[in-house]
Design brief:
Oligomer: single chain
Structural class: mainly beta
Helix content: under 10%
Number of helices: 2
Distance between the termini: 144 Å
CATH topology of the largest domain: Immunoglobulin-like
Low-confidence stretches: 1-12, 21-25, 618-643
Mean pLDDT: 88
Number of domains: 5
CATH superfamily of the largest domain: Immunoglobulins
CATH architecture of the largest domain: Sandwich
CATH class of the largest domain: Mainly Beta
Number of strands: 53
Radius of gyration: 52 Å
Strand content: over 45%
Shape: elongated
Length: 643
């Protein structure tokens, strides 16, 4: 108010001063904070609320800034106090680090402007200090008759013990300006300590309540709970009941389902859906009587709760939505039978629901190959065949249903049973120790098929006799035998077989040895390989030599062509291979080889047959009546002319 508006300016100076003070009392005033926001530490996914109130004339306007700019975000909400004294900045859900910042409450009017800053810190659950507040029991949905007392409970813990405050419809609850009707209980017991008690409840008390626990480490909000204040009416009233309760469903992963819930009563109840403590139906859009929950792309099984509420009560019904899952791993297979070539397994299904079939996976334990699979096994017992005797294998089982195949069972190791050896002892070789004593060596069979119990050595000077008539000796625990009492200068034929606990293996090919000191035994591993159309390369392993006296001085090679009886003999110096040339193409040759020392020629090997390849003919044709011959043809003609 301006001083000239006072009509008594001409009065004495003292009176003018007093009147001026009265006039100035009606002047405009700048904003002044009644409540400023305080620093807060929240948890990711939770809630943070900053309260700011100011007074002034005219009434100041409250604006919220983040980093100097006005806040604008879907997760940021500004809620005004009913009396216009200020507002609450609510951030939900909190995100780190994007929400961590300095926030500013700016109060301004035509006279002036003032501001107050606060800091928000957001922590992940794994970053929370040990004493961070925890809501042990949050408020629950409650319906109360008007004029009755309603108590909203809250239990919280932390170190130090957190202070508990309340928010209603996102604004702090004022417990000081209602003649004690709304108060917070301070009893030391839990959950009474911090509970909100509302006496003589009114319709204005109806709303969404949150319990807030705060200590030096941070702030945590409870899940919201609604308080409904119902009217006292004399009309006929019926509590809510479900006329169509929700039903359980089973769906495929990623599938969709609609769950219908219908409730009746007088008054008709509101119907909402919840998943645990989470409201799935917006409070401001809650249907009456019927609510259909539409679920899409469902990946996890869950229980959904239908809540029907009226002023006469609250009822709940649960619908179990089960997502069909892959089968569980079957029990570890057990070996019930075994043979030399098969293993029989049994196992527990490991699944309460039936499975479509099983897959048996197996592989050799000593192999790096992937598992082989036997598909479509319909029972929990199966014999895996086609295995090798006396071999270690790994087995595991996989269950399959209409969703797919589940994880494999624990692997089990099993060994097939023994059987007689499939092959004869290898590298049978020998030499004379004296004119009447020979020593024979051999290697274990390639396919032993079990634990070799021993060997039988057969020998004779008459190979036309059945082997059962030959002399024989048994050997255990060794791969050699000393044969004594031989007739000097006689040629002996020796065979060896191995046996397991199951039976005998096949006999080895004949080893020929002459009972004469210093005469070499047979060369071993004698074989031939065609190198061209007219040449064959022969190779062998020399017989064992015992000192200078039995040193090999050369070899004798006998060979014949096809069915011809005439044999050709070639002598050559000590070596381990020999290239025979000038042979006929496309012809089978038979070879025998013996080693020679200064004491004489040893026994010949068994016959080896090798065939030379067919000649590749070059094509010729005439050009303009002139015969044409390829380069190969001309080369052959030139060679023929030289000969």
């Amino acid at each position: 108010m301006l001083l000239p508006s006072c009509p008594i300016m001409h009065l004495a100076r003292p009176l003018l001063l007093v009147l001026s003070l009265f006039c100035l009392a009606d002047a405009d005033t700048p904003p002044k904070f009644l409540r400023t926001p305080i620093d807060q530490t929240g948890v990711q996914g939770g809630v943070a609320s900053f309260v700011c109130q100011a007074t002034g004339d005219p009434r100041p306007k409250i604006v919220w800034n983040k980093k100097g700019k006005k806040v604008s975000n879907q997760r940021f909400e500004v809620i005004e106090f009913d009396d216009g004294s200020g507002s609450v900045l609510r951030i939900q859900p909190l995100r780190t680090p994007r929400d961590e910042a300095i926030y500013e409450c700016v109060a301004s009017n035509s006279v002036g402007e003032t501001s107050s800053s606060t800091r928000l810190t957001v922590l992940r659950e794994d970053q929370l200090p040990p004493g961070f507040p925890t809501i042990d029991m949050g408020p629950q949905l409650k319906v109360v008759e008007r004029t009755r007392t309603a108590t909203m409970l809250c239990a919280a813990s932390g170190n130090p013990d957190p202070e508990i405050s309340w928010f209603k419809d996102f604004l702090p609850v004022n417990t000081t300006n209602n003649n004690g009707r709304i108060k917070q209980l301070r009893s030391g017991g839990t959950p009474i300590r911090g509970a909100l008690q509302i006496e003589q409840s009114e319709e204005s008390d109806q709303g969404k309540y949150e319990c807030v626990a705060t200590n030096k480490d941070g702030t945590r909000y409870s899940a919201p709970a609604n308080l409904y204040v119902r009217e006292l009416r004399e009309v006929r009233r019926v509590p809510p009941r479900f006329s169509i309760p929700p039903t359980d469903s089973e769906i495929m992963p990623g599938g969709s389902v609609n769950i219908t819930c219908v409730a009746v009563g007088s008054p008709m109840p509101y119907v909402k859906w919840m998943l645990g403590a989470e409201d799935l139906t917006p409070e401001d859009d809650m249907p009456i009587g019927r609510n259909v929950l539409e679920l899409t792309d469902v990946r996890q099984s869950a229980n959904y709760t239908c809540v029907a509420m009226s002023t006469l009560g609250v009822i709940e019904a649960v619908a179990q939505i089960t997502v069909k899952a892959l089968p569980k791993a079957p029990g570890t297979p057990v070996v019930t039978e075994r043979t030399a070539t098969s293993i029989t397994l049994t196992w527990d299904s490991g699944n309460p629901e039936p499975v479509s079939y099983y897959i048996i996976q197996h592989k050799s334990k000593v192999s790096d190959d992937t598992y082989k699979e036997i598909d479509g096994v319909a029972t929990t017992r199966y014999s895996v065949g086609g295995l090798s005797p006396y071999s270690d294998y790994e087995f595991r089982v996989v269950a399959v249903n209409n969703i797919g195949r589940g994880p494999s069972s624990e692997a089990i190791e099993a060994r097939t049973a023994e059987q007689a050896p499939s092959t004869a002892p290898r590298q049978v070789r020998g030499r004379m120790l004296s004119s009447t004593t020979a020593i024979t060596h051999w290697d274990e069979p390639e396919e032993a098929n079990g634990q070799i119990m021993g060997y039988r050595v057969y020998y004779t000077t008459d190979p036309t006799q059945h082997v059962n008539l030959w002399e024989k000796q048994m050997v255990r625990g060794a791969n050699f035998l000393t044969i004594q009492g031989l007739t000097p200068n006689k040629t002996y034929f020796i065979k060896v077989l191995a046996f397991t606990s199951v039976g005998d293996g096949p006999l080895s090919p004949d080893l020929q040895i002459i009972a004469k000191t210093g005469v070499p035994s047979q060369p071993t591993d004698f074989k031939g390989e065609a190198k061209s159309e007219t040449s064959i390369l022969l190779s062998w392993v020399p017989p064992p030599q015992n000192g200078q006296d039995s040193q090999i001085t050369g070899y004798e090679l006998l060979y014949r062509k096809g069915d011809e009886k005439e044999e050709k003999r070639i002598s050559f110096e000590p070596t381990t291979s020999y290239l025979l040339k000038d042979l006929k193409p496309f012809t089978t040759y038979t070879f025998l080889l013996a080693a020679r020392s200064k004491h004489g020629v040893g026994a010949y090997t068994n016959e080896v047959n090798t065939e030379t390849p067919q000649t590749r003919r070059s094509s010729s044709f005439s050009l303009d009546g002139i015969p044409f011959c390829s380069a190969l043809c001309l080369d052959m003609a030139q060679k023929k002319g030289r000969h």
